[in-house]
Amino acid sequence: MKAYQRMLADKGITQSMSRKGNCLDNAVIENFFGTIKSELFYLKQYRSVQELKTEIKQYIHYYNHDRIRLNLNRMSPVQYRTHHTNR
């Protein structure tokens, strides 16, 4: 959209899209957003944006370091990458 592209340029923001998008391009992050909403966001009312930001940072650490994934051989993402990088 030309108006949106102009607004980005006026604010000094470089648009990163260089080709027509594909719905599969966003599948991984869309899955993560669905997970974080159901496991964190919908379970509590936040008193401030800062409280929400803090809990999101904590959740991302938990998601990467402690949350077990069955499709990663019952390891967290960090455990899985470390296990397969050290071989």
From TrEMBL:
Domain Integrase catalytic: 1-85
InterPro entries with a match to the protein in the record: Integrase_cat-core (IPR001584), RNaseH-like_sf (IPR012337), RNaseH_sf (IPR036397), Transposase_IS3/IS150/IS904 (IPR050900)
Protein name: IS3 family transposase
Native organism: Dyadobacter sandarakinus
